[in-house]
Amino acid sequence: MSTPTVDIPYLNISDPSFAMQSEELRNARAASWYARTNYGFAVLRYDEVSKLLKSPKLKQGSAQWPAHNGVHGGLFYDWWTKNLLVLEGEDHHRIRRLLNPAFSPRLIKDLVPRFQALANELIDAFIDKGECEFIRDFAEPYATRVLTILLGIPESEWPKIARLASTVGLALGVTFKRDLDKVEAAVAELYEYADELIKDRQANPGEDFVSRLVLASRDGDRLSDEELRNALVLLIFGGMDTTRNQLGLAMQSFIRNPEQWGLLAERPELGAKAVEEVMRTNPTVTWVTREAVEDFTYQDLFIEKGTTVHLFTQSSGTDPLAFPNPEMDLLGEHAPHYGFGGGVHHCLGHFVARADMSEALPLLASRIADPHLTGGDEWLPDSGNTGPTRLPIGFTRRS
Amino acid sequence: MKTVDVDRSLCDNHGQCAIAAPEVFRMNPDGVLEYEPTFDDSLLGEVEEAIDVCPVQAIFLKD
């Protein structure tokens, strides 16, 4: 047995005050590629996150989440245990093959004019006031209405979709058991919604996204009605809060880096780069959870079967060993970030998220100058999916 | 005949191509992509799906 030459850092990741962008974390990352935590290990550096994220010795680590919270049945439990996020092996691959074509970047590109019109409509509503609550007035309606556009349902229904998605999202919080009745009711309502959509497109198939899912087939295999319903609920569950939070974090990043905001205003073609840089340096998904499927040793660390491994996204994306100049830089050439996870469980909807955010950010930059915080902002904790829930900002109108 | 080419400077070994077109792309036990540049014409649809789904868009068809 070799003796460790450094003390392995310990991070209390369930402490509500635990901060990803902190001296504590930077010191831990400088001392060691991994840390011990109250839930398994945390991987802190880029190269190790990149390799372990795609390692066949690790699987997605959230399958047991409901059971860990004392939930062993019901609508949410049934949905969760059959959804793409936690399926593994051929069960996962089969569903993924059938879903993937609808998410093709070529098809998403056709929606870009709608994303632009939506962004401008939302900006029009507050541009003359010189201030807005960025989450309420932009990030949330934008993220949700993009989903309604994708699903082909009336955009006016977005507040209901937003409410249902947020309610189901309570299942990922520490108060899951307490919120169970609300979560179950929201899943039931989303199921009704999804069933109606599926029935409609089966009867009247078109060229739209849901029709593509309904018609998807491969080697004579198709998605069952239940699998279609699960997928639509996953899309709403996974696509709304994440995009809303990431847009809020993007605004925070640009408020901290005003010269980058100015650059984006002058060069809207940097929109896609802006999304990558925001997600590398300030991602909403602060870690990706994996679980060891067998005993193995990685570098100097023995990882026992069943061990939880958290792959830290922001920490890896700003690791000085991989990014000598880790600050946000729209003109820099940087290795890819892992804000969309990676490997077989790489985010299914990332082309949609990338396309909609890369339209929204340059349009915002081209119309509002000098965005700044005006106080009263409220934030989710850094554990899990983070971001502002309230972000009042002031600005001047760019002429 | 078309062939397929992966830009290794972009490839990040996510393995989505191996899910979309397992006859052409596979991940070795170390999690590194291996693939056949030539493939049967009947697999063109699957290869096109692999090209579309690649998260870093590193796969290209060549005539």
From TrEMBL, chain B:
Record has Acetylation as a keyword: no
Keywords linked to the UniProt accession: 3Fe-4S, Electron transport, Iron, Iron-sulfur, Metal-binding, Transport
Keyword Coiled coil among record annotations: no
Cofactor(s) listed: [3Fe-4S] cluster
Superkingdom as given in the UniProt entry: Bacteria
A matching Pfam family: Fer4_15
Function: Ferredoxins are iron-sulfur proteins that transfer electrons in a wide variety of metabolic reactions.
Alphabetical list of PANTHER family matching this protein: FERREDOXIN (PTHR36923:SF3)
Protein name in the entry: Ferredoxin
Originating organism: Arthrobacter sulfonylureivorans
